Amino acid sequence: MTAVNSQIVKRQCLIASVSRACRNCGAPGVWQADPVIPELFNPGAVGQDVGAICPRCGAARPEPEQLGEIWSRETHADGSVTINRKGASA
Q1: Where are the beta strands (DSSP E) in the chain?
Q2: Nearest to 54 by CA among 35, 36, 37, 34
Q3: How far is the first Cα of the chain from the last one, in angstroms, to the nearest whole number?
Q4: Are 17 and 49 in contact (CB under 8 A)?
Q5: 63-71 contacts at long range (C-beta below 8 A, 24 or more positions apart)
Q6: pLDDT at 85 over 70
Q7: Would the pLDDT of 55 be above 70?
Q8: Average of pLDDT values for 5-29?
Q9: Percent share of the chain, pLDDT over 90
Q10: Which residues pair with 13 in a beta bridge?
């Protein structure tokens, strides 16, 4: 039996987005673990987008760019694995 016809028992994927810096003050678009910029210090949310309003200057921030699924792996009942890479050249 091939992977195409076999039941999928596990699926993993990587979904990417890009959070840009504030256009007004240049503050990073994600929460930080380092208190260099106190307004962005949030150890419990490191790497997560800060939201629609910059916590440093109060300016409106651009929405994160959603790149979608860039990688996936499927493990099938017969033990075979299928890996898909989006945008990868052959």
Answers
A1: 8-18, 65-76, 81-85
A2: 37
A3: 25
A4: yes
A5: 64/17, 64/18, 64/19, 64/20, 64/29, 65/17, 65/18, 65/20, 66/17, 67/15, 67/16, 67/17, 67/18, 68/15, 68/16, 69/13, 69/14, 69/15, 70/14, 70/15, 70/16, 71/13, 71/14
A6: yes
A7: yes
A8: 92
A9: 84
A10: 72
